[in-house]
Design brief:
Layout: E1 11-17, H1 28-40, E2 46-47, E3 52-53, E4 65-72, E5 76-83, H2 88-107, E6 120-123, H3 127-138, H4 140-143, E7 153-154, H5 156-160, H6 173-176, H7 181-198
Antiparallel strand pairs: 1-5, 1-6, 2-3, 4-5, 4-7
Helix pairs in contact: 1-2, 3-7
Length: about 210
């Protein structure tokens, strides 16, 4: 049990990494399965870990969390979530982690824990933190010097282009109510620059 329960209608930075820092996304299909699972398991009537669920009329589907932003790196992931129902984040993350682990172990003929224990969570306490956290997640490849390739995905394009193959993944209004797409791109890039500078890094790293 968590020492501090996760609260409904509050935003949380949720993250975890591979056990022993191992890569958990080895190709584009792995990323796609995880992205599909973000949808499949965000449902009050999702079934087990098989990726199947009973589908009602879309207007009647109750999401247990709202996904605001995501980043999938080769050996870890970041999610920005709002909890919609009691224990929603814990239920969602249990199904997501277990379902993806089963998929990964079957695909690569491995066994055992894929992720490093229980997911970590940090409460987002104000709008400024929420904005900067969304930038940190959306441009996470720049924070970790990760080349964008078949082993990386984020929700950044949803915010700045408004139309990608993952357009329906995120509930962006909480962020984009305060920015246009162009304003958000400038804000996010400046926010990450500040993060890198605080870590003693050079500005031109962001332009690589």
């Amino acid at each position: 049990m968590r020492k501090t329960p996760l609260v409904n209608q509050c935003y949380y930075h949720i993250y975890n990494r591979g056990n022993n820092r191992r890569d958990v996304f080895l190709d584009e299909n792995d990323l796609q399965y995880f992205l599909d699972a973000l949808k499949l398991f965000n449902h009050t009537e999702s079934l087990g870990y098989s990726g199947q669920y009973r589908r009602k009329n879309p207007q009647e589907v109750e999401k247990i969390v709202s996904l605001v932003a995501y980043a999938l790196n080769p050996n870890h992931f970041h999610l920005l979530l709002m909890q919609n129902v009691d224990n929603g984040i814990s239920k969602f993350m249990q199904k997501l982690s277990t379902g993806y682990t089963m998929f990964f172990n079957k695909k690569y003929q491995s066994s055992g824990a894929l992720f490093q224990g229980r997911f970590k969570s940090v409460l987002v306490e104000d709008d400024s933190y929420l904005d900067h956290l969304s930038a940190y997640i959306n441009l996470n490849h720049k924070v970790h010097y990760i080349v964008i390739d078949e082993k990386y995905r984020s929700s950044f394009l949803e915010y700045v282009r408004g139309s990608t193959s993952y357009t329906d993944m995120c509930d962006k209004d909480i962020i984009l109510d305060r920015f246009s797409a162009e304003e958000y791109q400038i804000f996010a890039e400046n926010s990450v620059k500040s993060t890198l500078n605080l870590r003693g890094l050079q500005d031109d790293i962001l332009m690589e």
